[in-house]
Amino acid sequence: PVDNDLYVSPTGSNNNSGLTPDNPLQSINYALSSIVSDSLNPYTIFLEDGIYSKSMNGQAFPLNLRGYVSIEGESTENTIFDAENLSSFLFCMDNDSNISVKNLKLINSEVFYNNGGTSVSIVNPNFFENRFINFENIIFLDNIHKSYLFSVLDMNANLKNVYFLNNQGGWQIRFWLGNDYEVIDIENMVIQNCSQYTHPDIFSATPVFLFGAIDDEPYQVTMKNTLIADNVDNTTDYSMSCSAISVSFSIDLNLINCTIGNNYTPGGAGQGQGAALLAGGVGSTF
Prior knowledge:
Helix content: under 10%
Radius of gyration: 19 Å
Structural class: mainly beta
Shape: globular
Number of strands: 21
Oligomer: single chain
Distance between the termini: 48 Å
């Protein structure tokens, strides 16, 4: 176990100490399993620019995120996770808290049957309080997923400068909340040119936000400076389809300086009942 920040490089070695940029590890998973962290001693795994993939340097996706450990790339454009159409990217289902991911480009995930068909899945299964995630300066590009590209259940979340571009499959983002104190803050986000993927197991694919909660009291969600444009939802399985944002239950959604346009849906069951923004549950407001 290492009680310290760690450094990883595509050209590093797991025989190195990983304690300095000049002596980096190669495997991100190895760094995650080695680092020791807690609320008093949070640490960061710093990633040098380059492509991290199974074929090029033995990376094992998806990465199992850990509490009080941040993953930080050198630059958004050039620190690249390439799943090579083999797997998802990230998951955390162990009630861990205070997780941060920064400065990454995530490409070529293909997820149908593993990880619930979700490329990034973060869950707080026991509804523990004060669980928080932070994603900054992230690009999701050319990914294929069955259910959700980015799914967060029962966590406070902050997303800033996150881009979803040219992805195919189900929902791009889902937030589902179950504790009164949970808050979602989104700033400077783009969802563009996303669409369904023709696959027999994708039956309700929509390239939009899904917000929902399991409480009578509304949860606060704020979206600032967000662009949702040029997305296509071809869903016809339900009476209503939606091409931008769907709010299910108990959400107060505040949209500030957002642009939502040129998104297309034919409407449910071919009846033309399509919407850009849809509030379909109890206790939701815009």
